[in-house]
Amino acid sequence: MKLKIDFKIKPILNYILVILATSLGITAGLIALPLTGKISERTTFNLLTKDEFYSSAEYYVSLETTDDKEVEQTRDIFFKRLDRFGVEKISIQKTDQDSITTTLRIVVNTTRDLGFVRELILNKYDVTILEKKDAVDFFENEDPYAYLNPENYDVTEWTKSDFRNIHITELRTTDKSYSNFAIFKPWTNKQAAFNDFLADNKGDYIGVSTDGSVMPYLVPLEENNIFAVPLPVEDETQVEAISILYNSGNIPVNYSIVEENRLDPQVIEIDHIKISIGLFVSLILVYLYILLTQKATLEMLAVPFLATFLTLSIYLSVLKFFNIPVDTFLLPIIGIIVASLIKIVSANDDSIFYIEGGFLVTLSVILLFGYGYMEILANHLFPLIVLSKISLIASSWYINKLRRI
Amino acid sequence: MEIFINLWNNWTNTEKINTLSLYLSLLILLPLLVKIVTKNNKLVIFSILSLLSSALITLLGITFLSVAFNYTITYIFLLTPIIVIFVNLLNVGSSIGYYQLNKKNKNFNMNDLKREYIQDSIYLTIFLALLFSALSIFLTSTFLVFILLSGITSIATIWVNYALLYYTVK
């Protein structure tokens, strides 16, 4: 008598997949829970909030001009610098004006290092290319630092505005290590003239003057299309700040910081633990209401409820796992938008293209033109829209599989 | 309107240009998306009017809060128009989808769309009202006012949209 084993692999795989999906969902949910840090002593999953990292300061800057156009241009450049650096809240107001000067008051409220914020305001970063004076010979000079002295150079016509971009990157040096360099890229219509300028100074020193401080550059003898000036900085944030200073435009006037004060940071303090619980409770209440008033059946509500839970759990888990700092007041806004999106999309299959397309278009526009908290909100929402779509598909698959078991 | 004039005067040119570009781009791109999806000019006009009306409602809401309650409008209220735009998308989007699904049916007419729209609007209103109010219990101070304002202007937008649909789509 032969023993026949009727072995069907598909149902077993389905069971395994459902078990795996359930485990992942429970894990995400547990990590997302607000008090996870207390559940496990081995690993803490605490949400890193930005609230404690905020600091605020005001800077009074005196501009040597009363021309409105120059004042506005200067305000714009300060704003661009601070916005690119990621300062969350920026206010630049004209506070005073006399016959020769205009005073600006710059107030910042940010989690970024105030030291670098100050440098972004303090430094004009006027860049000029200098040509060594013919009469000067650095090798015969008694002064070992002669190549750093701006008096040994003539000013050329080349300034920061002649370069479309000054890109900072790591390049390999002659001793095979890597170091930061600033690559000056001229505008297309000036490329040829700049190449001629470099060719005229082959084998000789030219200088890159930044606010009067000279960085010498030995023009190579062999033809080289890249004008890369070494930058003696290693710190990433410093490199970021220098890149912003190089590429945020030319401040047309001289100025100085006349006063600076630390202020109390403006933080919208929200207990994220209460908010997480509040969001979860409000979702349950809403879905219960819809179920009890018979506006939808349990089958119609299970998928969006599970998808919302999954999306928000994964989002919070990722924030906790990778220690991504977040403004707590954005969490309820994100929760409301995601919950509403998932509910409406699940109830209107025919509208998915317009709604999700519209969301992605809106978020793309905000990322392009937005600043401050608008940009931060859009940065968080963009991947969540994609994740919500995946969660809906996964939840629908999961509920279907569960029904068949 | 003084708060908006002061806000405008205090902004740098970059902020003014970026903010105008953001909202103008949405005013162009979202109706363009409607045009691509539906190819119906009445719905395109409806989507343009709904965006403009949602902007007006938001401005009126913020002005009312500032004037009637003497409330200081802080930077966080710049997020209110963004929330209202998203709610507007959900509201208009559900009708766009219904139109797309049924436009080729012989018996379909715009009154069916209006009936479907009012049902979706009631559904969305209840959902948002419950969500905003349930969450508000756990909030205080500035953020509570912000959430309540965003919730009220979002729901107002939904019903102004219904009125606009009623008159533009015949």
Task: Explain this structure.
The complex is a heterodimer of chains A (405) and B (170). Chain A has helices at 9-32, 36-39, 68-85, 114-122, 188-200, 236-247, 272-292, 298-321, 330-347, 352-369, 373-404; strands at residues 55-63, 89-97, 102-110, 127-132, 153-159, 163-172, 178-186, 205-210, 213-218, 227-230, 255-263. Chain A is of the alpha+beta class and 405 residues long. In chain A, strand 6 (163-172) and strand 7 (178-186) form a beta hairpin. In chain A, the strands form three sheets. A four-stranded antiparallel sheet of chain A has the order 2-3-1-11, with helices on one face. Chain A has a four-stranded antiparallel sheet with strand order 5-4-8-9, with no helix packed on it. A three-stranded antiparallel sheet of chain A has the order 6-7-10. Chain B is globular. Chain B has 170 residues and is mostly helical. The model of chain B has no long low-confidence stretch (mean pLDDT 87). Chain B contains six helices and no strands.
Topology:
The complex is a heterodimer of chains A (405) and B (170).
Chain A: H1 9-32, H2 36-39, E1 55-63, H3 68-85, E2 89-97, E3 102-110, H4 114-122, E4 127-132, E5 153-159, E6 163-172, E7 178-186, H5 188-200, E8 205-210, E9 213-218, E10 227-230, H6 236-247, E11 255-263, H7 272-292, H8 298-321, H9 330-347, H10 352-369, H11 373-404
Antiparallel strand pairs in A: 1-3, 1-11, 2-3, 4-5, 4-8, 6-7, 7-10, 8-9
Helix pairs in contact in A: 1-8, 7-8, 7-9, 8-9, 8-11, 9-11, 10-11
Chain B: H1 2-10, H2 13-38, H3 41-68, H4 80-102, H5 110-136, H6 141-168
Helix pairs in contact in B: 2-3, 3-4, 3-6, 4-5, 4-6, 5-6
